[in-house]
Amino acid sequence: MATKTKDLLSKVNRRGPYGVDTGDLGFTGTPGAVFVPRDAPSPAPLVGFAHDWTKGPRDYLDTCKHLASWGFVVVVPATDRSPRPNHQHFADHLSAAIEDVLQATLGRGTVRADPRRIGLAGHGLGGGVCALLASQRTDIDAVAMIFPTETVPDAADRAITIDAPALLLSASGGVHAEDARALHLGWRGPIVHRRLEKAIETGLVEAAPLLKYVGLADPDRRTQRAVRPLLAGYLLTALAGDDTYSAFADPEEKFKDTVTVTDQVLDEEDDDLMAGRPPLLKLVKRFTGS
Predict the structure, then answer these.
(1) How far is residue 46's CA from residue 119's CA, in Å, rounded to a whole number?
(2) I need a surface site. Which of 127, 220, 239, 246 has the fewest CB within 10 A?
């Protein structure tokens, strides 16, 4: 890892220069939370954050505060938390929350969200939901998908219509590697895909460790420390337009404990996987392309 990227990673791994005010999104009629950078230049770039399956804003408090401390207004709707959520409704609720925040004066009345700089970030199911919403709105300027999982309708099928630049984070050996792969290959706009070598796909949540024993959470501090700077650095350049952090949006740049995944890497991995399959199956795949 070059000295430049090491220093940048160390810098953005810490909280940013702004204090953070936390508010209740309920005033809009949609449950959720808003995180506002105190005394930041206004209007500030807006990030709509989508939670994972059955999760909510309180499961990502530190992550959202981290983003807000770097100058982003972060809105997190607390909707669609049932075991069987409607993924399209989830995307619609995220879109509505963004619109509500764009109309409001936030924090202590000094900050507004910028309608010209709107980004999306999501974890797990929320990553796929962000892709669904980006396929529906033309004003999305950046999308960050963290260990995304499959949605219905299929976000990977919608990805071919999305021109917004994207950050895709996957986990080495993760069970949802195929979902990340499908989004990568389908994405029409520029995409930076980094595979984290020491991350747990469910580890970004911050819920009480007791919940891990009933399968509702698996918080992992190492995963959180790895994801937050990569996410913040990417949004600082791709959404906020700060060239200081351009390395985070450059697939040629290397960061500690990550591997940049390219189309070529995915093709080679697919060939390796095929090599271990029965000859007849390989032949069928060659002809069908599936």
Answers:
(1) 6
(2) 246
